[in-house]
Design a protein that fits this description.
This protein has a domain of 59 residues. Helix content is 68%, strand content 4%. The chain is built from 10 helices and 2 strands. It has a two-stranded antiparallel sheet with strand order 1-2. Helix 4 runs antiparallel to helix 5.
Length: 272
């Protein structure tokens, strides 16, 4: 017999309730000490001078804006309370924490490779500057910067005179700006952990129909969640200019959530 929807529909078990409370408190605190909190509690690249080890945990409780925290906490409420009622509070806390850390681990691994490549290209430009190399740096790493249009105007001028060495000094400044900006972009949010909850819910209750706000059609969890994961992968690889979502963090949370549920299912009847 299924207990989904039974009892008090809006009651929150202790772990879910405390997750929501902590996130809301820290979000409200950013209105008074935002710069300080983001500097020390958001997750920065391993290559960044702002990186601190505790950020692997603290960034999970930080959010960028009201919409960000609302949808994440709505996900925790919708899926987390059901899973906690099934698993118990201890297991729920372990699962949420591992998914959050797994999301950060995957995101940071991808980011490390990207930043390594950027720094390598920047060093190559310092040694042997050229329009072609500058164009590669800009196209790959300056797409989401606020000064992208300014750089593109500069590149258009250089394009018509690629052998003119007078452009190199300004180009070097832009390269340093691109490197520093990328290293100072923080990551915040519980989305990776929430994606782990979503995966777990689909594995535990595959035939339950879900309706997302942007897709108001009931679809079984076992179909909807894999499609959502594929969309995240496509967006993560595409790296669109207008997209500032850490898609690989979502995929990391989903991966660790999937592996942990599989492990628990496989070992649920073992006696220790």
């Amino acid at each position: 017999m299924s207990s989904i929807g039974a009892g008090r529909p809006f009651a929150m078990p202790p772990v879910v309730k405390n997750i929501v409370i902590i996130n809301v408190i820290l979000f409200l605190a950013t209105f008074f000490a935002g710069d300080f909190m983001y500097r020390h509690m958001a997750l920065f690249s391993l290559k960044s001078p702002f990186f601190e080890p505790h950020q692997f945990i603290t960034h999970i409780f930080m959010h960028a804006n009201f919409g960000h925290i609302f949808f994440n906490m709505f996900g925790v409420f919708m899926f987390g309370r059901i899973l906690e009622n099934v698993w118990g509070s201890r297991k729920m806390l372990i699962f949420y924490t591992i998914c959050g850390l797994g999301a950060a681990l995957v995101h940071m691994s991808v980011n490390y490779v990207q930043m390594n490549k950027l720094i390598t290209l920047a060093n190559e430009f310092d040694v042997s500057p050229s329009y072609a190399l500058f164009n590669e740096i800009v196209e790959k790493y300056a797409l989401r910067t606020s000064y992208y249009n300014q750089i593109m105007n500069f590149m258009q001028e250089w394009f018509y005179r690629p052998d003119d060495t007078s452009f190199i000094s300004q180009a070097s400044e832009y390269v340093r700006l691109v490197v520093n900006t990328n290293l100072q972009v923080p990551t915040v949010g519980a989305s990776g952990a929430v994606f782990g909850l979503l995966i777990a819910f689909a594995m535990m209750f595959p035939d339950v129909e879900l309706i997302f706000i942007f897709l108001p059609i009931p679809i079984k969890a076992k179909y909807l969640v894999p499609v959502y994961a594929i969309i995240e992968l496509v967006f993560g690889v595409s790296n669109f200019k207008w997209d500032n979502v850490a898609h690989f963090a979502h995929l990391g949370g989903a991966l660790f959530g999937f592996l942990l549920v599989r492990y628990w299912k496989r070992n649920q009847f073992k006696i220790y």
